[in-house]
Amino acid sequence: MMKWAVLLCAVLALSECSVRVSLIKGKSARDALEEKGLWNEYRLKYPYNPMAKFGQSYAVGYESMTNDADMSYYGVISIGTPPQSFLVIFDTGSSNLWVPSDYCGSAACNNHHKFNPSLSSTFKSTNQPLSIYYGTGSMTGFLGYDTVGVGGIQVPHQIFGLSQTEAPFMAYMKADGILGLAYPRLSSAGAQPVFDNMVQQGLVQDYFSVYLSSKSQTGSEVIFGGTNPNHYTGSLIWVPLSSETYWQITMDSITVNGQVVACNGGCQAIVDTGTSLIVGPNSDIASLNSYVGATTSNGDAVVNCNNIASMPVVSFNINGHSFTLPASAYTRQSYYYGCRTGFGNGGSDLWILGDVFIREYYTIFNRGTNSVGLAKAV
Questions:
Q1: Is 272 a catalytic residue?
Q2: How far apart are the C-alpha atoms of 16 and 9, rounded to whole Å?
Q3: Catalytic residue (choose from 91, 146, 176, 252)
């Protein structure tokens, strides 16, 4: 299966690298819950316990992410003692953490931050090799252990990859590396993912949530062990996983104006923060693009920018619920290339609900119940 995330952020990312802190201004959490009609339900389910913070309890890790031209989302983590900082893509479609290292001489490493093991008093090498393959290249290196800081939480004895070679296209990535948030069974070399280590060590509860801003705005965040009701409205719809490798679910169909145009009879889809587009089987994507009025040019699904307001809504029908995307959500305008849809060929039967979808739906990834929760993002 084509892993689109790295390729697209490498080739299409436009804005300069910057890291911004996400702030919630002018509205308390209770205000937000009351406004959505959820306060009574919330306080009954989670009774107020003012002494909880003085006892042993879980932390909540708030990690702000930079939106890079709606094509990739990344935040800052640290590795080592004293900490060395790196930009990483938080990717629910993979499971390994890796960053460039001082042992790497590839062009992609030379224009990114490199981890220097000799500067960390807590680093331990395993000499175990690591290879991770993406759709257009790979990274190779070895595994080591060190303290990883993410979202204000320190995760001791975390295994991670130190790259020794990286594919040429990675030189164009804004991020230095990738932090995978899928299941351990997907992890290369059996390396335990960061989130699993956080949960196993009792640092956070066993779920995390993601909000992706649109139009390069600030505010994107991933929250480990918590949610942010300011970023969604209405009730959460919980969808059970069909496989515990990726965050994989069963999709019933995709419809336009009530007519099934793709995923006829049902299909499998993964919810993937690390993929920019919505990706599907070639024939289904061709059908979907045709129904919304796109034409193919040089592999892109092109639309007339003047027609976006009149283009149809696309409905992704999942677990008996309809999750709709207006044309303004599934099209993107580029200064250089005009307007294109966010529906791309994947060369596989597996669909990927990437950032185009997640921007519209606040997503909770729940390991305790092996499910994803979806609610309309605001």
A1: yes
A2: 12
A3: 91
DSSP letter, residue 143:
E
**Residue 91 falls in the annotated catalytic set:** yes
Q: Are residues 198 and 297 in the same domain?
A: no
pLDDT digits (tens, 9 = 90+) for 113-169: 999 999 999 999 998 999 998 766 789 999 999 999 999 999 999 999 999 999 998
Place of tokens 């990859």: 161
Whole-angstrom Cα distance, residue 90 to residue 56? 28
Regarding whether 303 and 215 lie in a shared domain, the answer is: no
Q: What is the signed CA dihedral for 301, 375, 369, 241, rounded to 10 degrees?
A: -20
Catalytic residue among 176, 272, 284, 355: 272
Instruction: Give, as one character, the DSSP assignment of residue 38.
Output: -
Domain range for 300: 229-377
Q: pTM for the whole thing?
A: 0.85
Is residue 215 domain-shared with residue 242, that is, in the same domain?
no
What gap in Å lies between CA 140 and CA 163, rounded to an integer? 6
